[in-house]
Design a protein that fits this description.
This protein is of the alpha/beta class and about 300 residues long. It contains twelve helices and eight strands.
Length: about 300
């Protein structure tokens, strides 16, 4: 039986930028304090929500180091190391390990999408050559590449492939994965709005965008699921599901950074090719945040 790297709610952290486009490390440190003070169970840094493709290696290093120092071993730090180039993914994974990360997150290759056999070779090549656990990330809406349950079953046999952040949106497929893999594979929800059904099926938590703005609330939802208090989990989830939805009114992480800025959390702008939130979508999101007294 594989042990989870964490249970509960992890935050897929945004990267705050200054107006001149540089990384705002001071704002990032405050963001980490906010997360840790509000019960977040793991920190995911330099992942998709972090705009990692736009970061230099020096910026990547600085963000991982700050997160590791802030966490101080109290919660795990997982660093993104995904690429559509296996050699580059291995390089990033080794680098994250050297910086003190507790695990790495590997998104499926994008554009050169590969086959299911290629996915097995890609992920095992990295997992074979590092000591820290590997979590996979399946988000076919963004990569065009989907990990099938049978492929998860094969990957679950690798001792260093711990589990997945699953965001394929297909609950039936996720149920099949859990049935095939059992205790040899840990599944985390990669979609905020599917945390309840995935955890009801046996998932161990969520890697959340929503928790960038409301970490305590997502921690409490996940905790209620883990405790089997489904009535409380359902009540709290349904209370916040419209906010979760509003944070995807535009391309992630545009809305969540806009919400953070509106709430005084200094996320700054996105880097190109991401641009400002569409005005109508922003108006809709503001109305949802105001409904909950967040603005």
């Amino acid at each position: 039986m594989k042990q989870p790297l964490f249970t509960g709610s992890a935050t897929a952290l945004v990267t705050p930028f200054r107006a001149d486009g540089s990384v705002d490390t001071e704002a990032f440190a405050r963001q980490l304090d906010f997360q840790l003070d509000n019960g977040t169970d793991a920190l995911f840094v330099c992942v998709t929500t972090s705009e990692t493709p736009t970061l230099t290696q020096e910026e990547y290093d600085a963000l991982v180091r700050i997160a590791v120092e802030k966490a101080k071993g109290h919660v795990p730090v997982v660093a993104g190391a995904g690429s559509n180039n296996t050699a580059r993914s291995l390089e990033l994974a080794r680098h994250a390990e050297s910086l003190g990360a507790n695990g790495v997150l590997l998104v499926t290759p994008y554009y050169n999408k590969t086959s299911q056999a290629g996915l097995v070779r890609h992920f095992t090549t990295v997992a074979d050559q590092i000591q820290i656990p590997v979590l996979l990330y399946n988000v076919p809406s963004r990569t065009g590449c989907n990990i099938k349950p049978e492929t998860y079953q094969e990957l679950s046999k690798h001792p260093n492939i711990l589990g997945t952040k699953e965001a394929n949106g297909d609950i039936s497929s996720i149920a099949k994965t859990l049935a095939l893999c059992g205790d040899d594979f840990i599944v985390y929800s990669g979609n905020d709005d599917q945390v309840l059904p995935i955890m009801a099926l046996g998932g161990k938590g969520v890697v959340s965008v929503f928790s960038n703005i409301l970490p305590r609330e997502m921690h409490e939802i996940a905790s209620a699921c883990l405790q089997g208090d489904w009535e409380r989990a359902r009540h709290d989830f349904l209370n916040w599901v419209d906010v979760m939805e509003a944070l995807f009114f535009d391309v992630n992480p545009i809305p969540v950074k806009e919400a953070m800025n509106l709430m005084g959390k200094a996320a700054g702008p996105c880097r190109l090719p991401l641009v400002e939130m569409e005005p109508k979508a922003k108006e809709r999101m503001i109305a949802v945040l105001q409904k909950h007294g967040l603005l």
